[in-house]
Automatic annotation (TrEMBL):
Subunit record text: Monomer.
Gene Ontology MF annotations: aminocarboxymuconate-semialdehyde decarboxylase activity; hydrolase activity
InterPro entries associated with the record: ACMSD, Amidohydro-rel, Metal_Hydrolase
Protein name, UniProt field: 2-amino-3-carboxymuconate-6-semialdehyde decarboxylase
Main function: Converts alpha-amino-beta-carboxymuconate-epsilon-semialdehyde (ACMS) to alpha-aminomuconate semialdehyde (AMS).
PANTHER family registered for this protein in UniProt: 2-AMINO-3-CARBOXYLMUCONATE-6-SEMIALDEHYDE DECARBOXYLASE, ISO-OROTATE DECARBOXYLASE (EUROFUNG)
């Protein structure tokens, strides 16, 4: 059987705490302290700040620490929102997948090894701590973009250390679309970044389809880089969605990821952004792909289907057409939504992803094999998901 090539459309870096001292402009440094680290917990030592329970011997735990500094806290020091418990996970499996790299604070060599050993030719690198660092309503656009610039500077150097196949995603904040567009252009020109990371959680007083944002969408379309819409767990700006689920942390994460993607999809399509910017590309990440089959039809059909196939005011196409033309959605290799989405939308809108660097991505080493073994999907479609579609989504040189 022909060995299929694979592009990982959604991997994650683990940013060092030194990023702020080394890359943030001096006038903003008093705002930032420690943010994220991987730790190996000795036997009997509790590292879970949520329930203070002990972890199993040699367990790998993920601790997100957000400090309140100065006027603008970079997130919230809310352990329920900012930590993830591995108490009920298979921590031994995590140790096997990540243990040696966790001890080294996830060096660039980890990504080089994964690509070389496991046949992943390109990895699109999205943040971890960067999801939360500007999640403060009172923060102004200038400060938010300074923090994003620091992350992007670090990521540019990090990708250079990894070498061939490492593809950065420029991280932006939407509060100042002009500054965000300027930063996207800088990152593409200086670092050859292949995507733009945007958290779909809304920023205060600005919606994705507001005219003020058009300068950003036009810049991304001109440069050929897609908007990677990657939600985050329990982001402060998601509270409107999450207030109904107090204490249900796993459910809150599911809601913020999936419903965040659905709302962003609605804004970009029904708000006319894709109509105004026909060359703009979107990639919906880490929310599964099954929602797209249902949601796009429902946007057109309305409550009971009575408006299906009727023209939508302000749009020249229907939601499915826009999605087929300009959108992609990432899928895990065992996602049961792949086959239905192929049937309803097509096999050209799905990209593969491992989520390497995060606990959910601990099966990265068998991603290609899992895709090859996926039932009810043709080999032609698998080839598109693993390779062809990502080449259309991201401006990657395949050679």
């Amino acid at each position: 059987m022909e060995a299929l090539r694979f592009i990982d459309g959604d991997s994650h870096v683990l940013e060092p705490e030194s990023i702020w001292e080394n890359y943030l402009e001096e006038k903003y440094r008093n705002l930032v302290s420690a943010h994220v680290r991987w730790v190996t917990a000795p036997s009997g030592q509790g590292v879970n700040a949520v329930d203070e329970s002990s972890t199993r011997e040699s367990a790998l735990a993920f601790e997100l620490e957000v400090e309140v500094m100065g006027t603008y806290p970079l997130g919230v020091r809310d352990t329920d929102a900012a930590t993830r418990s591995f108490q009920d996970r298979d921590l031994d499996e995590l140790d096997v997948a990540y243990g040696k790299w966790a001890d080294q604070d996830f060096p660039s060599s980890a990504y080089r090894e994964v690509m070389d050993v496991h046949g992943i030719e390109h990895m699109i690198l999205y943040p971890t701590a960067g999801f939360w660092t500007t999640g403060v309503a009172e923060m102004d656009g200038e400060t938010a973009m300074a923090i994003r610039r620091a992350y992007n500077r670090w990521l540019g150097d990090y990708c250079a250390e990894i070498g061939k196949g490492a593809c950065g995603a420029a991280s932006i904040d939407l509060r100042d679309p002009v500054l965000a567009a300027k930063e996207v252009r800088r990152c593409v020109q200086e670092y050859d970044f292949k995507a733009v990371h945007l958290n779909p959680a809304p920023v205060p007083n600005l919606r994705l389809f507001d005219p003020e944002c058009d300068v950003l969408w036009a810049t991304c379309a001109e440069l050929g880089v897609p908007i990677g819409l990657h939600p985050s767990a329990n982001h402060p700006f998601d509270q409107g969605l999450l207030d109904y689920l107090p204490g249900l942390r796993n459910c809150r994460t599911t809601v913020s990821f999936v419903m965040g993607s659905m709302l962003a999809c609605t804004a970009f399509i029904m708000g006319g952004v894709l109509e105004r910017h026909p060359d703009l590309k979107l990639v919906f990440l880490e929310s599964g792909c099954g929602w797209a089959s249902f949601w796009l039809d429902r946007l057109e059909a309305g409550i009971q289907g009575g408006t299906r196939r009727l023209r939508i005011q302000g749009l020249n196409s229907n939601p499915v057409d826009y999605f087929q033309r300009q959108c992609f959605v990432a899928a895990d290799q065992d996602d049961p939504g792949i086959a239905p989405l192929i049937e309803s939308i097509g096999d050209h809108v799905i990209v593969g992803a491992t989520d390497f660097g995060h606990p959910e991505g601990r099966k990265y080493f068998k991603a290609k094999q899992d895709m090859l073994e996926l039932p009810n999907v043709s080999m032609e479609s698998k080839h598109k998901i693993m390779w062809d579609n990502a080449l259309r989504a991201y401006p990657i040189n395949p050679n």
